[in-house]
Amino acid sequence: MELSVKILRYNPEKDSKPYFQEYKVPGVAEDWRLLDVLHEIKWKLDGTLTFRRSCAHGVCGSDGIRVNGKNRLACSILLKDLNYKKTIIIEPLPAMPIIKDLVVDMTSFFQKYEVIKPYLITKTPPPPDAERFQSNEDAEKLFESAKCILCGCCTTSCPSTWTNDNYIGPAALLKTYRFVFDTRDEAPDERLDIIDNPDGIWRCHTIFNCIETCPKEINITWHISQLKTRLATREF
Amino acid sequence: MIKTYDVVIIGAGGAGLRAAVEIPKEYSCAVISKVFPPRSHTGTAQGGVCAALGNMEEDSWENHAFDTVKGSDYLGDQDAIEVMCQDAVRAIIELEHMGMPFSRNEDGKIAQRKFGGHTKPADPADPYGKRIPVMRACYSADRTGHVMLQTLYENCIKNQVSFFSEYFVTQLLVENGVCSGVVAMDISTGEIHTFHAKAVVFATGGYGRAFQITSNAHVGTGDGTNLVYRAGLPLEDMEFFQFHPTGLWRLGILVSEAARGEGGILKNKDGERFMQKYAPTVMDLAPRDMVSRAIITEIREGKGIRGSDGTDYVLLDVSHLGKKVIDEKLPEITGFARTYLGVEPTKEPIPIQPTAHYAMGGIPTDIDGRVFANEKGDIIKGFYAAGECACVSVHGGNRLGTNSLLDIIIFGRRSGKAVAEFIKTADYSPLPENTEEQTRKEIEALKTSTGKESILNIRTELQVMMMNKCGVFRNEKELKEGIEELKQLKERYKNISIQDKGNIFNTDLMEAIELGNLLDSAEATLYSAENRQESRGAHTREDYTNRDDENWMKHTFITKANGSEPKITYKPVVITRYKPMERKY
What we know:
heterodimer; A: alpha+beta; Ubiquitin-like (UB roll); 2 domains; two-stranded antiparallel ribbon; 9 helices; B: alpha/beta; Flavocytochrome C3, Chain A, domain 1; Methane Monooxygenase Hydroxylase, Chain G, domain 1; eight-stranded mixed sheet; five-stranded antiparallel sheet; 16 helices; 34% helix
């Protein structure tokens, strides 16, 4: 079948502003990934179309894009999951500067991730020849948050991000959870202090966009609410 | 523009990041990667990383070493294998201390499960007698590589490592046995930079994208191995390329061996558990080369199932494990089956077929990552390699599942330590003249070419040829045909043109350069495969069906010779305590 796709194009070397270009892509099937469609265009119709991708099965987090107004991974969405009989609208992830076509500048996204000290902090030395103890129950409390692939779909789907560049965003908050609730970590307060401000966790207004968009189906808002509870009840 | 760093590491997967963690803060260290570090292919590893922790049952590093030697079909260097398996326990504990979240057992220790080819003697008093599967693979659900990569990236952030993400390395600067740095393109601007360094570490991964069906990410284009090959340096054992038996049908996406480690069963179209015939003791948990051969044999005997794309598959059944085990221990891979094939693994079997997965061969190194200039063991000063791009050789003819994640943390660390020692006394070697000239010329030539050949056609033909003629089963006739086809593809490659002529984020240009890298990686693989007249590990010759220790117990070293056929020499296999014997499971 033939698919109609409109893609937001922008090449700063040539264009003064972004514009939509329509492609008619023949020979596609409904079990194709949207990434397959992008490749079909790039490899057969227009070599200048620019996007990121790598693993092509939803693990590396490279190909976050906006599809019919929702943030998605191009490799994790099949045509049959879209209304493919109508023109599909593809744009770069919002709220980040466009470098070219669907490639956005993720500098600020990674800066916010680094701010929360995304690494285990301990003061007590670990046992010299053995792992630290952690019950499987406690380990599994981290697994959902540790699934995060840093694709940026959540943070850029959040209206609080759209209206405030300084908002730390759901991805960084999810990473905060991953360490604050790690029974091995000894600096939860340090991290809670970092997010305890108006541009930190309190700018999350439980809008749930992050959950709806997360390609790994992480219940991000629940994790943020756990942090909020922890903050509201912590004793100094 | 010239940037100067004590150490430059190329590649931000597990090996590169683990090496970076070892560089003391008083030295400058740059990690260059063509993708953001957490996008690296290490993140797609699923099932586990082996170490004889003995957390679930008794085990020893010697058991692990024996399995690795036997799994390698006795081509692995036993001194390196002993180093890896002995150090594995410490390395896993260290990862846990770094913060890696592991699944745990009832005692709160790191949980372990069974994996292909990992065994222990049924009777401890008879170490070379019957062997049974052992729980040795440490894991984090089926996202072990993902959390390992994240943990190493997190530790690099803690150590304030300088990252050059989305920089693409185009030249290795080696002259007279001395490495002085690399040339790289900043993808986002197209600017060319020279990185002048005292030491360079290649951790650039594999080249599975040379094959039609592969588990490898699009970035797996053999960039590092090709730069070494093009510099006139040898590559080792390139004929040994692993096909993972259980790739998702049609797509090649990895379905971890953990599925079988947890009790999953392979079945043919008659519902027969066919591994009983091929490996009566360990069955579905036989090493990957054997299981891949068994699947192709079943398919050739008409016991596969014909898919809508015209290819045949067999079935991996995990449905009897129950929803709880599947959801807790195999959530990711069963999710792939649901998303991409619409198959519900709790109720029905998953269609699978072998998928090109891992390069056992690569850049020859010693156990501290130092790159060999030749089979005699001379070293390139200031040049190191680790991970899939390297060949130590711990995997020999066939890598055991989980040993790749182990390889990257053991030899990534050892390379980092060797570099840290080297830069204490080393000085900057002078750069060759006009370092960036070659890259600029090549890029200009690609952008101005009006040739009629397309990247897509040449790449697709290469991938189909490699799959058909240099796949699970090989023979002289087809390998020779493959070599001829490759020569033609390389000629045609000279006439490719690209549509994107710009400087900013030119992925059209990158794909063209990557295709050149794939062609050279394929060349080294085809010639090495044609040359080795025996069957060993993943290299299965229909015309030489037996392993031939008398003539072929040796490593292949292949070197590009300008304008003529590549040159092949050999290096002896290091044997310490494990005498070669027949490989049965």
